[in-house]
Write a structure and sequence with these properties.
The structure is a homotetramer. Helix content of chain A is 58%, strand content 0%. By secondary structure, chain A is mainly alpha-helical. The longest helix of chain A is centred in the C-terminal third of the chain and has 28 residues. Chain A binds a DNA duplex through helix 2 and helix 3.
Amino acid sequence: MQKPATRNDSGRKTRLQAARSKGKELKRRGRQRSEESEEAILSAVIHLLREKPLRDISIEEIAKKAGVGKATIYKWWPSKAYLAFDAFSKRLKEMVPIRDTGNAEKDLTEQLYALFAFFETPAGKLLGQFLGEGQVDEEFACLFRERFIKPRRQLVGVIFDRAVESSQIRGGLDRELVLDLIYGPGFYRMMIRRAPLGRDAVDAMISTLFRGLKGTPSRDGRYLRRS
Amino acid sequence: MQKPATRNDSGRKTRLQAARSKGKELKRRGRQRSEESEEAILSAVIHLLREKPLRDISIEEIAKKAGVGKATIYKWWPSKAYLAFDAFSKRLKEMVPIRDTGNAEKDLTEQLYALFAFFETPAGKLLGQFLGEGQVDEEFACLFRERFIKPRRQLVGVIFDRAVESSQIRGGLDRELVLDLIYGPGFYRMMIRRAPLGRDAVDAMISTLFRGLKGTPSRDGRYLRRS
Amino acid sequence: MQKPATRNDSGRKTRLQAARSKGKELKRRGRQRSEESEEAILSAVIHLLREKPLRDISIEEIAKKAGVGKATIYKWWPSKAYLAFDAFSKRLKEMVPIRDTGNAEKDLTEQLYALFAFFETPAGKLLGQFLGEGQVDEEFACLFRERFIKPRRQLVGVIFDRAVESSQIRGGLDRELVLDLIYGPGFYRMMIRRAPLGRDAVDAMISTLFRGLKGTPSRDGRYLRRS
Amino acid sequence: MQKPATRNDSGRKTRLQAARSKGKELKRRGRQRSEESEEAILSAVIHLLREKPLRDISIEEIAKKAGVGKATIYKWWPSKAYLAFDAFSKRLKEMVPIRDTGNAEKDLTEQLYALFAFFETPAGKLLGQFLGEGQVDEEFACLFRERFIKPRRQLVGVIFDRAVESSQIRGGLDRELVLDLIYGPGFYRMMIRRAPLGRDAVDAMISTLFRGLKGTPSRDGRYLRRS
DNA sequence: AGTTAAACGAGACGGTACGTCATGTCTTATT
DNA sequence: AATAAGACATGACGTACCGTCTCGTTTAACT
């Protein structure tokens, strides 16, 4: 996550950034933002998440554990959720890198394997919290989609295009729909049904999805009709 | 869900129930639980949900609006989530009845239409909160699956069985997997992508799912291989 | 404390008493007041007072310990203080009987010894609570004076009269003033200074009081003037 | 009682005081305690005491009236009683200054006049509550004696010593005993008998006390003997 | 080198809600 | 009719955090 000093992953509260002119890179007077503190804060969040869910972690606790003033946290993150999202993203990038090796199949399945494995880690468990938060804070929901959902879909989108091109997937399909069909069952299984989701399950899902459910073709092309 | 007087939908905190024998129906001494209060509490929750998300509703507020003591709420529900779930279930039963008319196809699509429409209502928006809560409180997650997820799946399960029997769906498919493929994309689209999910989208999902994604058949049955 | 069944020492809340005619002793319809319960309640109070001060004892606790409904307590006593006062009086009568044996001196000192000893017992410690309650509830203060303070003063009043008559105490003294001088220092020492108050101290107080503080008499009879 | 900024009259909860070195007067980091809030709280207590007794005043009410958070009160005072005692002391200092003008007689009677007059004021009425609290909380009782009772007694103690020296009071008397005899009757009359206690009554008490009760002297110096 | 200003730790503050407890009232079934 | 059991509305308790606000300190860039 290479980023300039005053840039959060959640991309917010960096009011001064715009003021910094393009070329000169003139630094503001006064003390600079402490990288050390940011590091300590994110680390504290991740450590605390091993013990209890985000809901039960207070800003006060994070500040204390990080050896940081509360105000420093409030200064750089608009809410606990954004803070947690930064921590989440940090871990996500380490554990689920987006790769495009050219080998579409491998990239896709590796992506799904890693993703669903990540959701079992303390940081990954945040996902459910984020969904709840997304209901409450539309801005956060937006951030979440832009920074987490979209990049994943884009990867698969590329694979989809290639597969259509090479006729591995039939034409005429709505790309968004297909992406929903690919990602949906996994998320549903994990977040809602809370059932285990190993590699076999991923393989089976994808496989069944490709082949379809249909048995003997119905004459008029509609599904689920009495013969 | 017809229930005896002292029974919550969330099925908890009714310590005395067991003590009541089946036949004699002997009532315990002392004042009985007030049905009126229970009603008022659930109503208050639903009304408040029109204004703001569950997270921002305090127990104190509910009690005040319902004209009820806080202690009464704490007595019968272990947490705000359980209370909200009762309210959610109440509305759900009204709006998304589980019907088995014998017409499998109609039952399934009607079920999905109604379900996803329900999620747009104030009570339906709770779903995201419940997922978050489920991460925090495993007991709640369990309740949620038992009382909400399972009954829906059972309905579709029956339809699935019939369809297999009549060869509308090919044999050899794992039932749970198919249910994930049917429900998953809808939930994902709504909860995670927060994209609209009308009747057309439902039709397209189901339709594509049945037909499968595959283009030109690959020789060895594996998906996504260069020809 | 011989009393009719439905009479509290605190003499309150016995609305039905008036209705009972003198001679016929016609009993009210329905179940009679349970002597047993009253007994149990007062006992419970006294036992609880051994563990903690009245302030920290709840009506609920008393009811539970006495195996009695809360309503029963509320029915017969207007507040916790009155209830405690009944318990206090009960113990007081046992431990500090008012005796008039004719031997004035002995009666007085015995009275004081016993009284101040009583104040060291759990029930006696209530006295401080009663003073506080008296500030809050004038009716209780009145009851307290009538039933506790006055009877003690009357005993000493008789002794005072005899002593004046026999010239052991000089004439022309205000009776109430003298009673204040006799009782005051003891109460002050115990309740306010919380200093020990044994027999010696009582003897010294009375002795000094009788003899007076004066040294060389001042010519005009006023105290504390430079000669 | 001149005190540093962060010092309560009740002398408690000032954990950090010790850490402040004597000479440098280095202030601790962070925001300083708000004098303004302390003032507002004590004022609120005194105002509320005009309407009702301490028992019926809730911390919540005080906080609201003072425009202050409850936590601020709990932070600096361990209980309502200590808070009330600070308010009491504040008023006491204004209304009953301890003076030692050298004129012993005047100082003493003025002290008693003012003291007993003070007890008729809203703040003064607290005294009874404090006695009750003293029974419950030994630490409070101790504070009460140290900060209220002792200073008064010391003043009179000095007068006593002078009076003995000048032979206005005879020698050989126990100082503590005499102080009890002087203060006791007044407190008793007011707190326990709840009888009025004007200047005349004070004069009569002191006068009678100095002269003694004795009538015809008994031969052996014992009081209360049959002639 | 001195000045200025931002960021920082500490922590007090006015609030809000928490979940618990006790109050005094009321209802129900029992005695 | 009086009781025990116990549910109830009410409201205060003392605690925990919230997000804001001084404080005095530290760190840079700009004089």
